[in-house]
Amino acid sequence: MDQIILWLKYFFLGMVQGATEPIPVSSSGHLIIAQRLMGLKQNGLSFEILTNTASLIAIVFIFREDIMKLITGGWGYLRTRKSEYRDDFMFCLYIVIGTIPAAVAAVLFKDQIEDIFSSVYTVAVALLITGVALWLIRNLRGRKQDGDLKTKDAVLVGLAQAVALIPGISRSGATVISSIAVGMKQETALKFSFMLYIPISLGGLIMGASDIAHDPNRAQLAIPYLIAFITTLIVTYFSMRWFMGIMARGNLKYFSYYCFAAGTLLLIFL
């Protein structure tokens, strides 16, 4: 019976990760809250890496055509210098530029950030900050498309992604909000945000491979981890599809309401 309860807890954690990774409400913050409510404590980064990898697979599958187009066009421009491929090449370049701030911050400060800020209080405050940011950009409708981006746009969005290393600051929220704030159209903001997610998540997987290999609980938690992985993969896919529809309609203000409510409740009760 205890084993079944443990499996159900990890199934729930997978649902939380999958549902919140694509949307601007902070998956890391919600996992901290869920683990506290269920009395679970993760030692090391194995669980976080596995569930993030599951979300990554789902998001790569959804954006597979965009990814192939960027790879083909970027490589085509390098080989031929034809203008028809330039926009794809520049978009790839901006993804690299936008990835650098978070990559540097993760390498230098990730452990310190998590040690200092991994509290429910921090998550609550971060959710309120996210809510304010979502409210401020709720009516913005940018005009920049894929071919209109500039280096400064990539840098600013990249810096926002670095700030999202703080638990409770949503990565997708930070990048989508900053993308819209610098004038991108909803579709371009969504695409740029999740193209940035791919290299940073891959980097986390590579850096954390040793954590998984040397996890002392690996054998004991193999089935719960597998349950969480599969659940995260499936739920991320449907959550991402749902969020794409929300972005197309420009209804981000509803996420600000959620962040205000969740942050306030956490401050009151936890």
From TrEMBL:
It catalyses: di-trans,octa-cis-undecaprenyl diphosphate + H2O = di-trans,octa-cis-undecaprenyl phosphate + phosphate + H(+). The keyword Cell wall biogenesis/degradation applies. It is an enzyme of class 3 (hydrolase). Coiled coil: none annotated. It holds the Pfam family BacA. Keywords: Antibiotic resistance, Cell membrane, Cell shape, Cell wall biogenesis/degradation, Hydrolase, Membrane, Peptidoglycan synthesis, Transmembrane, Transmembrane helix. It is a multi-pass membrane protein. InterPro entries: UppP. Its EC number is 3.6.1.27. It comes from the Bacteria. The chain crosses the membrane at residues 45-63, 89-110, 116-137, 194-213, 219-240, 252-269. It is found in: Cell membrane. Catalyzes the dephosphorylation of undecaprenyl diphosphate (UPP). Confers resistance to bacitracin. Bacitracin is thought to be involved in the inhibition of peptidoglycan synthesis by sequestering undecaprenyl diphosphate, thereby reducing the pool of lipid carrier available. Belongs to the UppP family. This is Undecaprenyl-diphosphatase.
